[in-house]
Amino acid sequence: MKKYLIPTLAASFLLSSVGSILAAPAQPQKIKSVEFIGMDAPKTDDEKNNLMYSKASVEVTYVNGSKKTLPLSYETLFRPGDVINGNTAGVTINANGQIMTKADGTPYTSTAPDMNSLMKVPGLPANTYYLISHYESMPKNQNGLENPGTMSLSTVKMDPETGELTVVDIKPIDFSSVHGIWKPCAGLLTPWNTHLGSEETDPDARAHEANPKTSSVTKYMQNYYNDPTIVGNPYYYGHVPEVTVNANGDTSVVKHYSMGRMAFERVKVMPDNRTVIYGIDSNPGGFFMYVADKEKDLSAGTLYAAKWIQTGTDNGGSANLEWIKLGHATDAEIQKMADTLKFSDIFDVTDDAVKGQAEGYTPVKTPANGKKVEWLKVKLGMEKAAAFLETHRYAAYVGATVEFNKMEGLDFNEKDNKAYVAISYQENTMLAEPTAPADDIQLPKISAGGVYEISFKPNRKTNDGGKIDSHYVPVSMAGLVMGEDLVTPDQDGNTANVDKIANPDNIVYSQEMRTLFIAEDSDHHENNYTWAYNVDTKKLSRILSVPGGGESTGLQMVENLDGHTYLMNSSQNPGYVGYIAGLPSLDVDNK
């Protein structure tokens, strides 16, 4: 059995309310287990409406039978609009590096921070780190749907005694080399210490081509380039961006066109450093896998889409997964296609079912066409362009399942060879739809959604017999932690059980604590929460509450960063960027 070593409790515990730390034991003690002790749902008006807070705790059990309870607290690093070293957090910049401003000269400032990557970069001074943060959008009253998103790079200092983090500088990251960044949502720190983000907007190229001068992508690019004559290109957006940070704070960015184009949420790099599985924030959407040609290099690879073969309906449902190869590509060749192709170069299309049936078109229902069915035919020689620039349409076209509702964050449990993925809503195309072009998923309605567990096997074959060169191929999935809809709202207005998850979004897994952390983006709970779920005991504990109307976002599990452990946690609307303090730092000891 693995045992855990905690070098200093003082190094990982912070009491924000009194500013004191717990005295360290004289000698390190081996830890047998940790258990989260949850907190009540907010009760006072202040808790419900004004506070981002934690009243939870974690109980540490040592191998000698003794126990210690460590209170948790939420520590705010900054809020959008804060001025840090003369720079404003949450601003966005145009292609010329200028801060974008409103008519009165004040900057557009996001209230929607999301993903965080706290990273240790070689060459930085001791106890100094960088933090990449996403800002998903600008407020709607600030032209938010058509203004560029942004990411920031913060310089973070740590107090080595208490573990307290302080942001001492902040600046926007330049995306001008890749046509800007649109609606960056979730992301992660890769095993090779780069940041993989996401673009949650993949503009509909068919709709854009019909009205290019008035489309949202045209307005976006006109704003970003400060040029009212530009006509937008939808194929520049809906990709996975990768950010590399140097010790001097310089950043370089790429977009991985070979990973497909869709409304990305969080991708997860598997332990082989080649296989990547995707959570896609679309309704409906698919489940995808990418196998890179080389380790730690996502510039070329093979893209696959899953087919759901349903095996049960209990507890959110279950299925086996088959995989369909969509194609192989490099970033460079798909980017070249994106520069030159239009939707009509790739597909023939009709909305007329009679014509579609008569002329051999294939009916699909995808995020782009919503509840409508469109009939498609890939033009001669355009299969690769369809696979990588119109990924959801092509996946449905070749028979993959495009019926999931908002498949959000995911993470991997390496010891058990299991992954976890959030499906925010189990509605619409996840229910039986007898008249739909495809109806692979036929499950009971759970508006509160849930988290599913995925199992893996190595070196599987596609549905047509081709070999998949990966040891991490998802082969089945089943409901694990599900929400519960209420027939009538409770006294606080919740329409889902307040003691269970509702509409999970970000999730991350702690390998050392064997705990899955789940953040909500729900209108079924009056307040959104972050939860801790122990995969062994199956205990679910509420550990953080977000002010009413806010979404819990930006989860990152930082285990033993120079002796300290953090759960990074942000919120959107209102915006906070911070972390949960009080977590024990666990070092694996196999002696």
Automatic annotation (TrEMBL):
It holds the Pfam family PhoX. This is PhoX family phosphatase. Residues 1-23 form the signal peptide. Keywords: Signal. The keyword Aminoacyl-tRNA synthetase does not apply. It comes from the Bacteria. InterPro entries: PhoX. It comes from Ectobacillus funiculus. The lineage of its organism: Bacteria, Bacillati, Bacillota, Bacilli, Bacillales.
